[in-house]
Amino acid sequence: MGSLFDGSFLRVAMTDRCRCARPLPEQVARVAGAYDALIMREKDLDDGAYAALAREVMAACDRAGVAFIAHGHVLAAREAGASRLHLPLPALGRVGRPEGFALVGTNVHEVDEVAVAEGLGADYLVASPVFAPSCKPLPGRGVAFLEQVIAAAHVPVLALGGITDATEPAVRAAGAAGAVRMSDAMA
User: Which InterPro entries match (predicted)?
Assistant: First the structure.
């Protein structure tokens, strides 16, 4: 599973370049001290544009000591040289665990998806939305949902959705391996 999950609480930034006031490589440098890893989630890009941006962001992550995780673009991630990949659960179900990645993760939105995700070879899970996210109108599932996912899982579980300085202590107390933030990471 690489060195990402070493027992310490992992803080992960998730990108959204459309909400960010500066280019992503600059934003990586700006938030580097606050995050251990970055998931580059730029769903609107085609594979060529994703690979080009991924190379720039990976270089910025390397300089900042932040682990880079590609999101959704298997071929572009491979072309860019990414060693970690995050896929939505439906995509992981369609393509299976892609070869050549040291770490593959996925999202779960229901407790019964944990066994499915693990059966497909996921190394870590992102439970979401734990709290109501500020970037889309979804209700949060709550800490009890996160605890149920953690109890069902045999791999590390990260929390996503409405994670802030105020909500992160509850995520830690629930036993999550870490938290994923988008809104404040891209501000």
Answer: Aldolase_TIM (IPR013785), ThiamineP_synth_sf (IPR036206), ThiamineP_synth_TenI (IPR022998)
